[in-house]
Request: fold
Amino acid sequence: MKRLSVCAALAATLFAAPAMAHFQMIIPSDDMVEQGENRTVTLDLRFWHPLEGIGMNMVKPTAFGVLANGKKTDLTGTLKEVQLKDREGNMHPGFTASQRLGRGDHIFYVEPKPYWEPTEDSFIIHYTKVIVNGLGVEVGWDEPVGLKTEIVPLTRPYGLWAGNVFQGQVLLHGKPVPGAEVEVEMYDPKGTVKAPAGPMVTQVVKADGNGVFTYAMPRAGWWGFAALSTDDKPMQHDGQDKDVEIGAVLWVNTYDMK
Ligand SMILES: [Cu+2]
Reply:
């Protein structure tokens, strides 16, 4: 079980972190498609430890699609499996897809298959979104997709500078989650960040009584926000009921102000 060894190794050699922060990721090749630019955006889907660069294995998701101009389109059939190399040189399956964008905001979302995580004795399902603006028409980014759990942005989720504050509202079954715990981590594909201590890898903020959280992003790059809940229904693993961690994950990009 490679997955077990990867996560167990991280747990043992790094730190007794409160959570080993695996994040479902959807990273687009462009988050603001402007007039005259290539309108075809490639999406990179992976299940990853974003700052540490350690991969996990993704299987074909339950659902992958886009909400744009008030309409949901299923894109599951466009997914192509790829092998992704992580920082330790191990290969992990992930997926890519390409989509030509029109005007307006495009909310790409994925519902992965339940992932059994032995080190946490639970399943994990991270409902994950990323928003790509099409041709300057800034309409739709604040709409919920209607996922079981999701983060709805209060800050426009593109066109952000490093140092900006980001605010979102955590929803579970369409209702705010007071006091939701949100894990925050930067994607560091080149391995440029050195975390001086375990708690530096994954930041933690709590939502207020309306499920609203706030975080200031200190550096340019992609930032992932994961609000974790436990599903009301368990799932069976080897004939036993196990918890299902359902995460609402959102990715936003920030740019250096040069
Ligand atoms: Cu992991």
Observations:
- The chain has one domain: 2-255.
- The pocket of copper (II) ion is lined by residues 7, 20, 22, 49, 56 (CB under 6 Å).
